[in-house]
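pasting for ref
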Amino acid sequence: MQEENFDLAFEKVKGLVAKFQQGEKHYLSQSYQEAEVRQDFLDDFFTALGWDVGHKIQHDPYEQEVKVERGVKVSGAQKRADYSFSIAPNFRDSKFFAEAKKPAKALKNKDDYFQSIRYGWHKAHPLSILTDFEEFHILDCRYTPDINNSLDKCYKQFHYTDYLNKEKFAEIYFLFSREAVANGSIEKVDETLPKRKGKATTKTLFPFEIHQTIDEAFLEVIDSIREKLAKAFKKQDENLTSEQLTEATQRTVDRLVFIRFLEDKLIEQEHWVSEFGEKGSVWNDFISACRKLDAKYNGIVFKEHFIDEKNFAGAEVSEFRTICQDICHLNSRFLFNEIPIHILGSIYERFLGKVVHATAKRVTVEEKPEVQKAGGVYYTPKYIVDYIVRNTVGKLIEGKTPEQIAKLRFADIACGSGSFLIGVFDCLLDHHNKYYQKNPDKAKKDKCIEKDGLWVLTIKQKQKILLNNIYGVDIDQQATEVTQLSLALKMMEDETTATANDMQVLFHEKILPDMSKNIICGNSLIGTDILTQNLFAGDEERKLNPMNYENVFKEIMQNGGFDAIVGNPPYVNNKELPEGQKKYFVGKYITAVNQFDLYTLFIENAVNLLKDDGYFSYIIPDAIIDRSSATSLRKFIHLNSKIISLLQINNVFITANVGSAVIVLQKGKNAKGKFNYLKCSEPEEFISNKIETKIISQINIPNFRNHSFLFVDDKEWAVIKKIFKDKINLESITFMGRGEELGKSSSLAKRIQGKNDIGLLFGEDIHRYKLKEPENFISKSAINKQEKLYDIKIVVRQVGDEINASFDNQKFITIQSVYTIIPTGEYNHKFILGILNSKMIDFVYKKLFKSKELFPRILLESLKELPIPAINFQNKTEKATHDKIVSLVEQMLQATKEVNSTKTDKDKTYSERKCSSLDTAINTEVYKLYDLSEEEIKIVEGEIKPV
């Protein structure tokens, strides 16, 4: 099919080439404009590649893969790329841009290359297209844009006559056709491109080149601005405290970013930042502009602050002038209109992890202590935010009218920079836009604006959505301000000068809503009861910032609570908490048991703050799945909510190799339902929908050890219960222990065997039914543990995600990462060994006990619980079964030795085939021993998949 599509595209493009050749003189003339080449050639060219450029199929303007910008220019500067291409259903996340030019001008020039690269870089696209049809250039957009080396960033280029060459046209088609992009063609090419991180040395091809993503680069810039500003403020007034400097720099940076956003979005026609200092001092001009903008916009950004006061000395003139000039539209490499709001949130989340610290002589910017302990700030990726919002807020608003939605209340009670609330707002805006598109009479009645054939929301309608639906809490004042800034930027994202002016002229109102009653600075876990209990000293009490939801959100709580709560709470183990806080939490929260973590308390509180049937979803550590420290939390969840879904995913946070879980709950005592348990190893699997899924009965959770959330469906659980029924645990019929506390580097371990030395076994020496001959030895005099450990024994490797057990009849010494098992009574070593290495025990172990850690380990406690049949050795039938397994295992041990000792390929193949046959025979006898049916065996061996 792909080849057929290619052939069709090739024929269509050949027709365009013929057309260009016939009128080449006209098309290359100065009179032939960019708009014409797009209409005559480029629209058809991309249509031939399979894209719906003319929107003949995708009629809904909110669900179109190709966005076409029709020549919006201001002062000669274009503000958006000509073509933007995405893949359904992610219509907002573009895959690549194409920039069009008139053929008369040479395509390879610094300005056009720089412009195209900037567009791609701001959206994290590896590649962009620059074309006038006569030529087709593919540009590398992975590096921070620099006009001086932009011409070096051409990945490939083609002349229009190359389109007639099938092989050359195939390079374009199989990279940028719709079907190729949907299959990850751009990502695949990106993986092959050479990568350089950080600043290159002068010996490299591009001496000053920096390979940074947009968020890394912008964070670096505002970090630098903050430090320069703090020092500039301190120069003017050395009495400013650390707290005052932190606030002053935060508010100034927020204002500069917001003003540049207004400029690049064309909401403000005037270029404010570049002109600061032309009417007076640069600082006074900045403050004067802020006062004017406050009169128009309102909101937290321009709200009067101590930096606006006349007695505030401001920033040192030359430093502040430099800052403004660097960030202004004339000099900045950033297109503020192209930076996605969620990217700004990511930047600010990390920005908030630092504070300004001042002494009498120095000013430094330092990480907050809690951020240092946590190893950095972990910002939730957009795909996780979208997943959580879609499965909570999205479910609640589905099929509802704007009037019905206006009554719903959504919150993040640890909102940080507001990433989840931006996601909620985005979801609400999208729903409203689609609703009005399908209901034009209602759109007209509700006073929506008709723009380019679309019904769009007015600023006033967006204000109402923000004020009615969105709520947030954070203990950090700066975070609540940034959240309000982020929401304001999101609200203004699609506005223009005209719509902003209409808001003032028609409604006589300021543009930004006052969100001070929606986004609150307070402690979500500690209430004002501490104020009367004298639990904390005055200064600590002030820092804790206690708050009661019943007071702050009185109306919401009187009406039953929030409809949905989403987010990513703080992860702080109680070991890191002061004793006073720990004592308070233990007295207040039923999940504050043993080694609890703050995220458990946030979950408990969030569920309690919900209305009945309200939705909840957090991303949290995967310790919630089966760690004993989270047992009380799992019990709380089971008793107080219906589990909708549980997603287990690794490496969500790039800087932390940890496992994560996303849980979606609905408040209410309903444990009879089923939920989807989803698993994926990497984010790429989740994004490409390569997810392993099982349907789990919530009613089974109390039967699982420690109320664990096991990846076990009903059929598997029935088999597991049968396997354990009337069995004894392994510990009851064996001696079990660990080896010596030694390592390879220990002076006790010697490479060469002496007269009184014994072989030393390491974990990597142990495999199923096989032992590698020891390469290290230890003196008998160095043995620390009882000699029983060095008897004939079963040995099990600790490291790994499956049981690897073998038989040691030479009485080797083992290190601590090797477990020793010695049967008691009449049980034979080889009988136990056969069961441990069987497919059935592998199934049981992986379902019930497998470690979720990055480097998985077999736990001795788990081995002790494994089910073993209680053999009556006086019963001839039972003893015969026992002895048969022993005999098969003896043959297996011998056969594995033969595999290693054989010389010829023929003998090796024979030995391997013999091992496989014996393995099957052992498994068959074990299945009989546990009385498993054919269907149950298929479940154990994974042949019956969950529905």
